[in-house]
């Protein structure tokens, strides 16, 4: 049954999500129409419930029918007491909350978009996820302005000049986390306030539904009651004229009434395309702050926080290795940690450097089919008849220097690593050594034909283009 479920799931998620979240799951039993699966950590359970609940529901529906249920079992290793596993069973929500009407398999039942909001005790539904708060949002140079502006807005919604507050940045850099933290903070400090979190995809779907059901009035009335509106991924509205127009009215009305508007986009307002000018100009009324890729120290702090939350200990050299190897975004970083925890828990072994290396290599290689630093080092070493360790060695022997420089050169061309991280992967060299190596290779490429041929031959063996071109 689980294998069939996996097939259904596999059709709808990326290979990477599948490997990270679904592959480590172990089916345990099927009894009384309840399928019990074992997930490696609480975090995985939470993530599955938050992100894939529809898909799981769909798979269970198709395998066990609508009465079928899924139950999770989480094995918790408590630090040193490794042999003692704590098992808890967590039943899934009966029916998924309707986070996204488009993929909601029960969507037909709803007559207006407002049925999509399940009401909370105070009469409102905020759709905030309580796991996101300021405490577990690590501050670094990459997000300092965004975080402090967010905090200011959280403390005085609608009152600061940061209205709207627009946070922008690439995927997985913490936009959703931060805006949800703002919403949660406001809700905690003032239960009477109607805080609403909505992704723009959902907003669009609700709008379409309202038009279809001739219920624009209801739609507008609903949104006009909101005190704090959090709109996630505004770039989704690009090119959707009618939805934008509707949002424009909501925006004006709320803003005039002193209500707080918080938005995220994946790029700066200047780079947004497919938006009406009048809307864009409003985006710029308040404050725009960007979230950037976290630097090394922040990545280390994020990993440590994550591990702490899971109650797992890890050596600092392993943490540093991970932080040096994954510098794209926080989501990736978390994915690697989860994979590692899964591997460690399934194989009943510690997360050591070796396991970290293999897991990262596996994920990076398999998913992106890109050349990674290990592959580069291996190929270059093979070509020059040296070992990978030689490349990381401190020796200045000429027969080692050139291969090392070539490998560094390829690392710069083919990976997104910073100079600092490249240096780390080559025996802890500093970034000026890395710059020097790249320059030397560029010089030799211009002057030395044989050298150029050698470099090209190695390059061919990568069978993929470097990042830059
Ligand atoms: P985005 O919305 O920008 O694509 P998310 O907010 O979904 O990114 O972040 C991706 C993951 O990374 C989330 O699990 C989030 O909790 C985590 N994350 C991002 N930034 C931080 C941070 N500064 N501290 C702790 N966790 C973070
Ligand atoms: Mg997001």
TrEMBL record:
<dbReference type="InterPro" id="IPR018312">
    <property type="entry name" value="Chromosome_initiator_DnaA_CS"/>
</dbReference>
<dbReference type="GO" id="GO:0005737">
    <property type="term" value="C:cytoplasm"/>
</dbReference>
<keyword id="KW-0067">ATP-binding</keyword>
<dbReference type="GO" id="GO:0003688">
    <property type="term" value="F:DNA replication origin binding"/>
</dbReference>
<dbReference type="InterPro" id="IPR024633">
    <property type="entry name" value="DnaA_N_dom"/>
</dbReference>
<feature type="binding site">
    <location>
        <position position="172"/>
    </location>
    <ligand>
        <name>ATP</name>
    </ligand>
</feature>
<dbReference type="Pfam" id="PF08299">
    <property type="entry name" value="Bac_DnaA_C"/>
</dbReference>
<dbReference type="Pfam" id="PF00308">
    <property type="entry name" value="Bac_DnaA"/>
</dbReference>
<dbReference type="InterPro" id="IPR001957">
    <property type="entry name" value="Chromosome_initiator_DnaA"/>
</dbReference>
<feature type="region of interest" description="Domain IV, binds dsDNA">
    <location>
        <begin position="345"/>
        <end position="469"/>
    </location>
</feature>
<feature type="domain" description="AAA+ ATPase">
    <location>
        <begin position="161"/>
        <end position="291"/>
    </location>
</feature>
<dbReference type="InterPro" id="IPR027417">
    <property type="entry name" value="P-loop_NTPase"/>
</dbReference>
<feature type="binding site">
    <location>
        <position position="175"/>
    </location>
    <ligand>
        <name>ATP</name>
    </ligand>
</feature>
<dbReference type="InterPro" id="IPR020591">
    <property type="entry name" value="Chromosome_initiator_DnaA-like"/>
</dbReference>
<dbReference type="GO" id="GO:0008289">
    <property type="term" value="F:lipid binding"/>
</dbReference>
<feature type="binding site">
    <location>
        <position position="174"/>
    </location>
    <ligand>
        <name>ATP</name>
    </ligand>
</feature>
<keyword id="KW-0963">Cytoplasm</keyword>
<protein>
    <recommendedName>
        <fullName>Chromosomal replication initiator protein DnaA</fullName>
    </recommendedName>
</protein>
<dbReference type="InterPro" id="IPR013317">
    <property type="entry name" value="DnaA_dom"/>
</dbReference>
<dbReference type="InterPro" id="IPR013159">
    <property type="entry name" value="DnaA_C"/>
</dbReference>
<keyword id="KW-0238">DNA-binding</keyword>
<keyword id="KW-0235">DNA replication</keyword>
<comment type="function">
    <text>Plays an essential role in the initiation and regulation of chromosomal replication. ATP-DnaA binds to the origin of replication (oriC) to initiate formation of the DNA replication initiation complex once per cell cycle. Binds the DnaA box (a 9 base pair repeat at the origin) and separates the double-stranded (ds)DNA. Forms a right-handed helical filament on oriC DNA; dsDNA binds to the exterior of the filament while single-stranded (ss)DNA is stabiized in the filament's interior.</text>
</comment>
<dbReference type="GO" id="GO:0005524">
    <property type="term" value="F:ATP binding"/>
</dbReference>
<dbReference type="InterPro" id="IPR038454">
    <property type="entry name" value="DnaA_N_sf"/>
</dbReference>
<comment type="subunit">
    <text>Oligomerizes as a right-handed, spiral filament on DNA at oriC.</text>
</comment>
<feature type="binding site">
    <location>
        <position position="176"/>
    </location>
    <ligand>
        <name>ATP</name>
    </ligand>
</feature>
<feature type="domain" description="Chromosomal replication initiator DnaA C-terminal">
    <location>
        <begin position="372"/>
        <end position="441"/>
    </location>
</feature>
<dbReference type="InterPro" id="IPR010921">
    <property type="entry name" value="Trp_repressor/repl_initiator"/>
</dbReference>
<keyword id="KW-0547">Nucleotide-binding</keyword>
<dbReference type="Pfam" id="PF11638">
    <property type="entry name" value="DnaA_N"/>
</dbReference>
<dbReference type="GO" id="GO:0005886">
    <property type="term" value="C:plasma membrane"/>
</dbReference>
<keyword id="KW-0446">Lipid-binding</keyword>
<comment type="similarity">
    <text>Belongs to the DnaA family.</text>
</comment>
<dbReference type="GO" id="GO:0006275">
    <property type="term" value="P:regulation of DNA replication"/>
</dbReference>
<feature type="region of interest" description="Domain I, interacts with DnaA modulators">
    <location>
        <begin position="1"/>
        <end position="83"/>
    </location>
</feature>
<dbReference type="InterPro" id="IPR003593">
    <property type="entry name" value="AAA+_ATPase"/>
</dbReference>
<dbReference type="GO" id="GO:0006270">
    <property type="term" value="P:DNA replication initiation"/>
</dbReference>
């Amino acid at each position: 049954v689980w294998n069939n479920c996996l097939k259904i799931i596999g059709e709808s998620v990326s290979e990477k999500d599948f490997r990270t979240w679904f592959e480590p799951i172990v089916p345990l039993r099927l009894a009384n129409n309840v399928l019990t699966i074992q997930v490696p950590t609480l975090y995985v359970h939470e993530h599955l419930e938050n992100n894939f609940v529809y898909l799981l529901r769909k798979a269970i529906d198709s395998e066990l029918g609508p009465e079928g249920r899924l139950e999770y079992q989480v094995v918790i290793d408590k630090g040193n007491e490794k042999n003692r596993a704590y098992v808890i069973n967590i039943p899934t929500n009966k029916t998924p909350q309707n986070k996204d009407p488009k993929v909601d398999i029960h969507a037909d039942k709803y007559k207006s978009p407002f049925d999509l909001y399940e009401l909370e005790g105070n009469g409102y539904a905020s759709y905030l996820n309580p796991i996101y708060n300021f405490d577990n949002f690590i501050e670094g140079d990459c997000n300092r302005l965004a975080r402090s502006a967010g905090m200011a807005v959280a403390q005085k919604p609608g009152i600061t000049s940061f209205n709207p507050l627009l946070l922008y940045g690439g995927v997985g850099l913490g936009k959703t986390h931060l805006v949800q933290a703002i919403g949660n903070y406001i809700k905690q400090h003032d239960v009477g306030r109607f805080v609403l979190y909505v992704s723009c995809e959902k907003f669009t779907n609700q709008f379409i539904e309202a038009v279809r059901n001739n219920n624009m009035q209801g739609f507008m009335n609903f949104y006009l009651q909101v005190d704090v509106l959090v709109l996630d991924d505004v770039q989704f509205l690009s090119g959707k004229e009618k939805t934008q127009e509707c949002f424009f009215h909501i925006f004006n009305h709320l803003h005039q009434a002193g209500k707080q508007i918080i938005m995220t986009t994946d790029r700066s307002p200047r780079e947004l395309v497919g938006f009406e000018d009048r809307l864009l100009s409003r985006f710029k009324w308040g404050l725009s702050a960007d979230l950037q890729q976290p630097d090394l120290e922040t990545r280390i702090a994020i990993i440590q926080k994550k591990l702490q939350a899971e109650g797992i200990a890890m050596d600092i050299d392993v943490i540093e290795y991970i932080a040096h190897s994954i510098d794209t975004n926080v989501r990736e970083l978390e994915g690697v940690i989860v994979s590692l925890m899964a591997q460690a828990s399934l194989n009943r072994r510690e997360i050591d450097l070796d396991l970290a290396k293999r897991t990262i290599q596996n994920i990076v290689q398999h998913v992106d089919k890109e050349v990674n630093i290990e592959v580069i080092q291996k190929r270059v070493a093979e070509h020059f008849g040296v070992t990978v360790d030689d490349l990381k060695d401190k020796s200045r022997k000429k027969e080692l220097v050139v291969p090392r420089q070539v490998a560094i050169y390829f690392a710069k061309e083919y990976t997104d690593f910073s100079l600092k991280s490249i240096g780390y992967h080559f025996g802890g060299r500093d970034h000026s050594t890395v710059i020097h190596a790249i320059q030397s290779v560029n010089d030799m490429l211009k002057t030395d034909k044989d050298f150029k041929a050698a470099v090209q031959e190695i390059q061919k063996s990568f069978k993929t283009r470097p990042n830059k071109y």
